[in-house]
Design a protein that fits this description.
The chain is of the alpha+beta class. The chain is built from 14 helices and 20 strands. The chain has a six-stranded mixed β-sheet. Strands 1-2-4-3-13 form a five-stranded antiparallel β-sheet. The N terminus is likely disordered. The structure holds iron/sulfur cluster. The site of iron/sulfur cluster has 12 residues, from loops. Its cofactor is [4Fe-4S] cluster. Belongs to the nitrite and sulfite reductase 4Fe-4S domain family. Catalyzes the reduction of sulfite to sulfide, a step in the biosynthesis of sulfur-containing amino acids and cofactors.
Length: 550
């Protein structure tokens, strides 16, 4: 590794005539209401007002700028009020869709959740969240129906088990995706857990990094199966072995989906684990200083990376932010499929880990508490969440695996899922999300039930990602069958809930975005038959070894 300080080289970045709100080019004046709100008051300060004022005086005392802006930095969003169909989503102002209840995210950041943590998370759900809890595809536990009066108690309980809601939402470094098998997988390249912990310790809740142009997503894995969807994060660290220096990480930047998807750019550099937090800080600082802040739709790192290109991004990172040149190295081999770790696997210490799945991430508080009890009963270390709305039980003795698999099944978590249950994800959708146009979770649960009847055995994996709007929180463009919620016309010409279909997307080897054809639209009611037709055609027409994606 070459970590000698570089000669001081000035990096010239021309100042465009029309600024996009890039701070470092002198455009410091807020160009929209989100930027104004962040300038008016650092969003992290809202915690004090939640604890000291709003939780005591109630919902009506909340300053609207906090309610619809800064609350997000504490993991809180107002949830969608019931009674508005998807047609209203675009017609009404956000505040008209506001309920008096909140969605709350707790970030897990790749940590092992032990029995106490799981029972605490479960108790919060049953006591304060009407028994709701979802595992998101970003290592979060997400509750609904939270009332402002209960937030201080929830914060206290979450923090008592080493977790936080801090910056789980907002224009901030959101929850990290870490490998669910960090430190335990036999074939691991490197355990990156300590780097994630250090990033969190130094930078989460740090006011220097709490006013970003928009959200900033981090992924880190030392597992060869790239099990954290590194292609679609703002910054990803991916295990790679340097021929001289040994195991470390490749750095990828500027991935993201939503309405303008980009796969991450590989910088072609290798960093040792000790340097990961500094490099993370360099990348997030570039985003903070040069990211576009005028239009929310362009305020993601992917646009800056696309405009600058790899070489310029790397030059600015090394020369302006790190002061050292990073070692050059080809990126690691891309796996055939990204690991979801479902099933029973032997770990490197001779014990086992068990990947199990709820249905599209939907669990509840009772299940979380039950899971905590099972971890204790079987003497396991705990549970990690995955990037696919699933979970992995860690540290199980060999003679306990069968009993644990059976017990997991009893609480609705299976280690032997069908293809459909294993490979279908769904976002929050119209049940709670103010941006949603259609229902997602229950529709997916029904779809899975039906597909399990129609195709009980499948010898080739097919993934389905169901999204309630174009924002692609459940990754519309990178599934075999990606569904983007929208209103469509039924056979009588009426507008009804449905989906634009994207076909043949994927991550890992052959990563690409699914094709979107105008004709590929389906009503929600017609979804079961539509997917059935797709799968039937694929099975009938495939050549030997041909995947759905190809
Ligand atoms: Fe909400 Fe749309 Fe994201 Fe689904 S994809 S959670 S509907 S913003």
């Amino acid at each position: 590794m070459n970590d000698q300080p570089t000669a001081s080289v000035k990096v010239e970045i021309p100042r465009p005539k029309r600024g996009e709100g890039q701070w470092e080019l002198g455009y410091r004046e807020p160009l929209n209401k989100n930027e104004q709100s962040k300038k008016d008051d650092n969003p992290l300060n809202v915690r004090g007002r939640i604890l000291g004022i709003y939780s005591k005086k109630g919902f009506d005392s909340i300053d609207p700028a906090d309610l619809r802006g800064r609350f997000r930095w504490m993991g809180l969003y107002t949830q969608r009020a019931p009674g508005f169909d998807g047609g209203k989503t675009a017609q009404l102002e956000e505040e008209e869709l506001d309920d008096r209840y909140f969605m709350l995210r707790v970030r897990a950041d790749g940590k092992v959740l032990n029995a106490d943590a799981l029972r605490t998370l479960g108790g919060i759900s049953t006591e304060f969240g009407r028994n709701t809890a979802d595992i998101t595809d970003r290592n979060n536990i997400q509750y609904h129906w939270i009332e402002i009066e209960n937030v201080p108690t929830i914060f206290e309980r979450v923090e008592a088990v080493g977790l936080t809601t801090l910056e789980a939402c907002g224009d901030s470094p959101r929850g990290f995706l870490g490998s669910p098998v960090a430190g335990i997988a036999k074939d691991e390249i490197i355990d990156g857990s300590s780097a994630l912990e250090e990033i969190k310790r130094r930078y989460i809740g740090n006011p220097e990094y709490s006013n970003l142009p928009r959200k900033f997503k981090t992924a880190l894995t030392g597992h060869p199966s790239h099990d954290v969807a590194p292609e679609i994060n703002d910054v990803s660290f991916v295990g790679n072995v340097h021929p001289e220096h040994g195991p470390g990480f490749d750095v990828w930047v500027g991935g993201g989906l939503s309405t303008n998807p980009h796969l991450a750019t590989k910088l072609g550099v290798w960093v040792p684990i000790e340097q990961v937090p500094d490099v993370w800080e360099g990348v997030v600082s570039i985003f903070r200083d040069y990211g576009y802040r005028r239009l929310r739709s362009r305020a993601r790192l992917k646009f800056l990376v696309a405009d600058w290109g790899r070489d310029k991004f790397l030059e600015v990172l090394e020369k302006k932010y790190l002061g050292v040149d990073l070692a050059r190295l080809e990126s690691p081999e891309t796996p055939q499929h990204q690991g979801d770790h479902i099933g029973v696997h032997e770990a490197k210490d001779g014990r086992f880990y068990i990947g199990a799945t709820p249905v599209v991430g939907r669990i509840d508080g009772t299940t979380l508490t039950g899971l905590g009890d099972l971890v204790e009963k079987h003497g396991a270390d705990g549970v990690r969440l995955t990037a696919y709305q699933k979970l992995v039980v860690i540290g199980v003795d060999g003679d306990k695996t069968d009993a644990l698999v059976e017990d997991l099944e009893k609480i609705g978590l299976t280690a032997k899922p069908s293809n459909w249950r294993r490979r279908t994800m769904a976002c929050t959708g119209i049940e709670f999300c103010k941006l949603a146009i259609v229902e997602t979770k229950q529709r997916s649960i029904d779809l899975i039930t039906e597909l399990e009847k129609r195709f009980p055995e499948l010898d080739s994996p097919i993934s389905i990602n169901v999204n309630g709007c174009p924002n692609a929180c459940a990754r519309t463009q990178v599934a075999d069958i990606g569904l983007k919620g929208q209103l469509v016309l039924d056979e009588n010409g009426n507008q009804v809930s449905g989906y634009q279909v994207h076909l043949g997307g994927g991550l890992a080897l052959g990563a690409n975005f699914g094709r979107k054809l105008r004709a590929h639209k389906v009503t929600s009611d017609g979804l079961d038959d539509y997917v059935t037709k797709l799968v039937t055609n694929y099975l009938a027409g495939r050549e030997s070894g041909e995947s759905f994606q190809s």
